[in-house]
Amino acid sequence: MKKLINFIFVFNLLFLVSCNKEKNTKTDIVPVEKPKDSIVKVEKKIVENTPELIFTVQIGAFKKPNQKMAGVTNIKVTKEEDLYKYRLGSFTDYKSARSFRKRLSKEYPGVFVQALKKNNPINIIKALK
To answer: How many angstroms separate the Cα of 21 from the Cα of each of 15, 25, 28?
Structure first.
């Protein structure tokens, strides 16, 4: 019994000593160098020979993004107003776009040729004048 009391006494003593030790923590303050202001040069690339008017074939328009359409090879997706529009091809003449539309109509019913002037849709009749 005396051994047990000694053990408990020593254990409590060690416990109290370890709890009362002050932790010697030192916080190092490392100065951070402020980044220098940098100037970013923006270059504007002007692409010559870009047609002002192109014809493309629209295969779909949806209120929400369509994963099936987005997976089509070479698809161009644009958001116009509240619709996501999916288009294929870029032609400088209506006849080529019309021929491409005909080939696509088997897989995508309701496709049509869309005229774009400076990447903005315009009426096909105005485009053909």
So the answer is: 10, 12, 21
Residue 14 in tokens? 């060690």
> Helices then strands (H, E): number in the chain?
4, 5
Backbone φ and ψ for 53, nearest 5 degrees, come out as -120, 125
Q: Specify the pTM.
A: 0.60
119: left (phi > 0), else alpha (psi -120 to 50), else beta? left
Question: Tell me: the pLDDT tens digits for 96-119?
Answer: 999 999 999 999 999 999 999 988
Which domains occur in the chain, in start order? 53-128 (3.30.70.1070)
Which residue has 């369509």 as its token pair?
A: 66
